TrEMBL record:
Region (Disordered): 1-189
Organism: Edaphochlamys debaryana
Stretches assigned to the Protein kinase domain: 213-488
Active site: D337 (proton acceptor)
UniProt protein name: Protein kinase domain-containing protein
Biased composition (Pro residues): 178-189
Length: 498
């Protein structure tokens, strides 16, 4: 029997032609998959087989790369992102006929909605206006480095019409002599948008192009982007390529791509997926990211029976997760989409926080958008109205929320890992909904104070969850305070003595 409540979808909007592949850096849920080939990890846990004893994995293909050295002094040659993207954003083909994306690309504003904002149970009223139907993009649409296109033969530039016609014909090879190969055209120029300051040595180069990678398979396909597993030809390193197709990116979402690159490329932490580089290739923006071979926490949880022990939650998840979240909050970055699908693992079981598509820097702008996944949204996020333009409600301080929304999501995540499903702790936000019998019941019972726990759960775990789920954001602990909670400290001490 499934440990998840009925009606909770496992996936939506997915490419069913490639089932069973892990989601690398996207906001979608894919079918469970056995762990596969690996990347390096910055750290590994002692006694890991003991923690993972309920989890039966298939044999791994060992193509680990070892630990990548950091190069904090490596120069970042990126020019301002908005300047680099402005020619493409002004193109009428980007975002539909006749549209101009220059204004949206230059605004460091919050998003209105994207498919990342959709709840796990789709609500049509919350969806943005759908884009026109387009042809599905497959991995075959990416450049194939093994079969370069043949160039057209040169034509005569002067002489009589007859000699010009003769000269315009392809040169005929002598009998028994193989014809000379046609010249290979130079690839179109690309523009480097961002470079990670700790770029691994094997990936260091002056120019970046899709020609540098062999695409292995597509991991995810959305309406505006796709994610591929690829191998860097020069170094042999596996990477994840997140490709945005600018012709399909709506006008209201362009600034999110720009902001994602600006925030993510500068992050260097052992528990955060690394964005190696981002470059503009024709009408595509390509994000070259670290590849997480073990897949995401959601599928790992399913393979472990739907729940984890307290020791597994504290050591495998919460300690490294809170370390990564504290790193973000110290820099003013609010993730806004914490959930098991965005917690990934490398071959050596190093936790990696991923997907910064809806993240925001609170030092630069005000967060007033209903963004994220509904099951993990804090009350102050769900009360934000829907937006039609990125600038909507930006000047309304009463709607602004803080990084405490990530702490709420951490509490929801902890409860789900220990119990097997997310808690119902979000009462109706509209007065009309509360007048119905169901709404009145939800208003009284769907609160952290009325939350029920299994009798087997320790008192420390309960106080940890209830603290993170405080209804007033000011009453919630910070991520550093959560990391010092006695429940985590006690579990670490017990694990060390085991």
């Amino acid at each position: 029997m499934s440990p998840f409540p009925p009606g909770r979808p496992l996936a939506f909007g997915l490419d069913n032609s490639d089932p069973g592949t892990p989601d690398v850096a996207c906001n979608m849920r894919l079918p469970a998959t056995p762990p596969s080939a690996g990347l390096h990890a910055s750290s590994s846990l002692p006694h890991l087989p003991t923690l993972l004893s309920p989890f039966k994995s298939s044999p791994l293909r060992h193509d680990s790369l070892g630990q990548s050295p950091a190069h904090p002094s490596y120069p970042n040659p990126l020019s301002p992102l908005a300047t680099a993207l402005s020619p493409v954003m002004r193109s009428p083909s980007a975002g539909g006929p006749g549209s101009s994306l220059a204004s949206a690309a230059s605004q460091p504003l919050d998003s209105f909605r994207s498919e990342r904002d959709l709840p796990r149970h789709r609500d049509v009223s919350d969806m943005p206006t759908p884009a026109p139907a387009t042809r599905a993009i497959s991995a075959a649409s990416l450049p194939d480095t093994s079969s370069p296109a043949a160039a057209s033969p040169p034509t005569a530039a002067h002489g009589s019409s007859l000699s010009a016609a003769v000269a315009s014909q392809p040169p005929q090879a002598a009998p028994g002599v193989a014809p000379a190969p046609a010249p290979v055209p130079a690839p179109p120029p690309t523009t480097l948008l961002a470079l990670n300051p700790a770029l691994p040595g094997p990936l260091r180069r002056r120019t970046w192009s899709l020609e540098d990678f062999n695409v292995v398979k597509r991991l995810y396909k959305g309406s505006t982007s796709s994610v591929y597993k690829a191998v860097d030809i020069r170094s042999g390193m596996p990477v994840a390529l997140k490709v945005y197709f600018l012709s399909k990116v709506p006008r209201n979402v362009v600034h999110m791509v720009k902001r994602e690159i600006e925030l993510h490329h500068q992050l260097v932490h052992p528990n955060i997926i690394q964005l190696y580089a981002a470059f503009l290739d024709a009408d595509r923006i390509v994000l070259v990211q670290e590849y997480a071979a073990r897949g995401d926490l959601f599928h790992l949880l399913r393979q472990m029976g739907g729940r984890m022990s307290e020791q597994q939650v504290t050591e495998l998840v919460m300690r490294p997760f809170l370390d990564a979240l504290s790193y973000l909050h110290a820099r003013g970055i609010c993730h806004r989409d914490i959930k098991p699908e965005n917690v990934l693992y490398t071959e050596r079981w190093s936790l990696k926080l991923a997907d910064f598509g809806v993240s925001i820097n609170l030092n630069d702008e005000r967060a007033v958008t209903r963004a994220g996944t509904l099951d993990y949204m804090a009350p102050e996020v769900t009360r934000c109205p829907l937006k039609a333009e990125p600038s909507d409600n930006k000047h309304d301080p009463s709607l602004a929320y803080t990084s405490a929304v990530d702490v709420w999501a951490a509490g929801v995540l902890t409860y789900e890992l220990l119990v097997g499903f997310t808690p119902v702790v979000a009462p109706p936000q509209h007065h009309a909904a509360m007048q119905t019998p169901v709404g009145a019941f939800m208003a009284a019972q769907a609160t952290p104070k009325a939350l029920h726990f299994p009798t087997s759960m320790s008192a420390g775990a309960r106080t940890f969850i209830l603290g993170a789920l405080a209804e007033d954001p000011g009453d919630r602990p910070t991520t550093k305070e959560l990391a010092r909670h006695p429940w985590l400290a006690g579990a670490a001490a017990a694990f060390a003595q085991a």
